[in-house]
Amino acid sequence: MTDHHHEHDHEHQHGSAGADDSSWGELLDLDAEVLHGYLSEVTSQLAQLTRNDPPRRILDLGSGTGTGTLALLQRFEGAESIAVDRSPDLLEHLRNKARTRGAEDRVRTVQADLDDAWPDFGPVDLVWASASVHHLTDPDRGLREIFERLRPGGLLALIEMAGFPRFLPDDVGRGRPGLEARCHAVQAQEHAERMPELGSDWGPRLSRAGFAIAAERPFAIDLRPPLPEPTGRYAQAFLRRMRSHVADRLSPDDLATLDHLIDSDGPDGVLRRGDLTVRAERTLWAARRP
Ligand SMILES: C[S@@+](CC[C@H](N)C(=O)[O-])C[C@H]1O[C@@H](n2cnc3c(N)ncnc32)[C@H](O)[C@@H]1O
């Protein structure tokens, strides 16, 4: 689950770069691959919380390429998942992945814009919403809709992020260390304007929607070298997308350094560096419909 670039109407209104779904899909898949350890901890906690009554019907909202759906189908062998997204390309990508993993009979995809009227999915046991609720124009309405769709006793797994992944050592920057921190600062400014719901405290909002919080768990992801091969591609895909959002607010030197870093052939590019880390923060709120 890596966020921050989507085709939300807000983006178009504010004139930021549109996201093409195939490169976004690649980034979401790399996120799942590189952060598989964290993902497994989350699904393990959900298995604990549902151990007396494992979920059979799962609803994955803003499913993207199916990171949540596929991890949950692996964790809960008797379950089926309805994956909902407004992007037909990402849903097609998800179906292809499900087929590759032999899970196609357990997944139904539904294309829907959750800012509009929600389809009737029938009652579900578990809702998974990872890095998706903050995209909604009215997230509190989204939480109430989720509440309505859960059966009594059903669980919502809401995952949101406090910040975006960081990959680079602090000394990177032409003549001026701290390039990545500067990029994140610019991006935070941009997000405050474009995605004000990002980084919200979801606990009180869940309570207001009627949920009982079963767990709130922050995950501090901190992967250190040597890291496996997809890490460089993940960093490259992430920094490329970040560039499209911060370029016009960076100094020419910083922009030039960033371009070297994301250049596939560049000797200093992230694909070749042995000193990358992955540091990210995500929080799981597990909340029950009483
Ligand atoms: C950051 S991605 C997260 C994808 C996936 N949940 C994950 O963790 O990898 C957010 C997803 O929400 C979807 N999305 C955003 N706004 C939406 C809306 N209004 N209706 C349906 N899907 C939406 C996007 O298309 C995207 O796939």
UniProtKB/TrEMBL annotation:
Q: Molecular function terms in GO for this entry?
A: methyltransferase activity
Q: Where is the composition biased (Basic and acidic residues)?
A: 1-14
Q: Name one GO biological process term.
A: methylation
Q: Which key words are in the record? A: Methyltransferase, Transferase
Q: Region Disordered: which residues?
A: 1-22
The answer to keyword Cell membrane applying to this record is no
Could you name the domain of life of the organism this protein comes from?
Bacteria
| Pfam families tied to this protein | Methyltransf_25
CDD domains (UniProt xref): AdoMet_MTases
Supply the Gene3D superfamilies for this chain. Vaccinia Virus protein VP39
Domain Methyltransferase residue range list? 58-154
Annotated PANTHER family: TRANS-ACONITATE 2-METHYLTRANSFERASE, TRANS-ACONITATE 2-METHYLTRANSFERASE-RELATED
Protein name per the record:
SAM-dependent methyltransferase
